[in-house]
Amino acid sequence: MGNPLLFIILAAIAIAAALGMLLSRNAVHSALFLVLNFATIAVFYIVLNAPFIAMVQVIVYAGAIVVLFLFVIMLLGAEQLRALGSVSGSDRWQQILAGILALVLVGVTIIALLQAGGSGSEAIPLIDSSPTALGLELFGSYLLPFEVTGVLLLAAMIGVVVLGLSKKRGEDA
Amino acid sequence: MPSTVPIEWYVALTITMFTIGALGVLLRRNAIIIFMSVELMLNSANLLFVAFARHLSDLQGQVLVFFVITVAAAEVAVGLALIVVIFRSKHSINIDEINMLKG
Fold first, then answer.
1. CATH class of the region A1-82
2. pLDDT, tens digit (0-9, with 9 covering 90-100), for B63-91
3. What's B83's domain CATH number?
4. What is the 3-state secondary structure (H, E, C) of chain A?
5. Each residue of B10-55: pLDDT tens digit?
6. Per the domain annotation, does B56 fall within a domain?
7. Which structural domain, as residue segments, surrounds residue B19?
8. Distance, in angstroms, between A48 CA and closest chain B CA?
9. In B, which residues are within 8 Å of A133 by CB distance?
10. Between chains, do A27 and B77 touch, taking CB under 8 Å as contact?
11. What is this structure's pTM?
12. Which residues of chain B have a CB within 8 Å of the CB of A171?
């Protein structure tokens, strides 16, 4: 399941990038931190014997989704909105409470996992995870979900087009 | 240090990332940042799927990640279109100011 040293370095980068996304005041910086996080996760996928998923991650997430985010941020000029910690005073205690609860959750979970004891370190057999094997699985046992996914994408596309048209119709009326 | 990474480390990493994403949804007021946090949570779940696929030597976890990525892409497209439409009418994407449906 990978080299522990590599895991620690990658995990540190991934968590630092996630925190950077959470804490950045500028939305563009948040999006760029998100790219760093996605790239780190792609490296994890390669380590975990999922090279095709890693490439899909880079192309779809880092390529398409984050570019869409950046496009909308710049289209709206929404880089500098109110950042973390600038909510009205009555909500302030809720933020602090959320932070404390999150720390407790992560801490307790990690302690519980460490106490559970490591799973056996015997070598786990590698399986064939080439695009061919994945494709056979996808078009074999998962054929119906795959086609439903196609319908979902079509519905999303139509929905976006309708949302984009609504303003013009409002002007005509 | 163990010679290989136990699955528990991956669980701990993904829980941490998921919590950061959930905190982003709860704490930030910018709708776009909230969407990014949702993506972060989806990604942490994906990473756990792939880690367990490797741990159990089973390809099905990787197939499920495909479906999650597809749904995430559709969700982002619709969500960002909604944000653009809301911005046109309210000139703000601060979720505290989007309260038209509030009773």
1. mainly alpha
2. 999 999 999 999 999 999 988 888 888 88
3. 1.10.287.3510
4. CCCHHHHHHHHHHHHHHHHHHHHCCCHHHHHHHHHHHHHHHHHHHHHCCCHHHHHHHHHHHHHHHHHHHHHHHHHHCCCCCCCCCCCCHHHHHHHHHHHHHHHHHHHHHHHHHHHCCCCCCCCCCCCCCCHHHHHHHHHHCCHHHHHHHHHHHHHHHHHHHHHHHHHHHHHHC
5. 988 999 999 999 988 888 888 899 999 999 999 999 999 999 999 9
6. yes
7. 7-96
8. 6
9. 59
10. no
11. 0.87
12. none
Alpha-carbon distance A70 to B98, whole Å? 22
Q: How far apart are CA B61 and CA A48, in angstroms?
A: 12
The total number of structural domains in chain B stands at 1
In chain B, the residue whose alpha carbon lies closest to the alpha carbon of A80 is B30
Domain positions in chain A are: 1-82, 133-173
CB atoms A84 and B96 under 8 Å: no
**Is residue B44 a part of any domain in this protein?**
yes
The pLDDT tens digits for A77-89 are: 866 655 444 555 5
Cβ count within 10 A of residue B11: 18
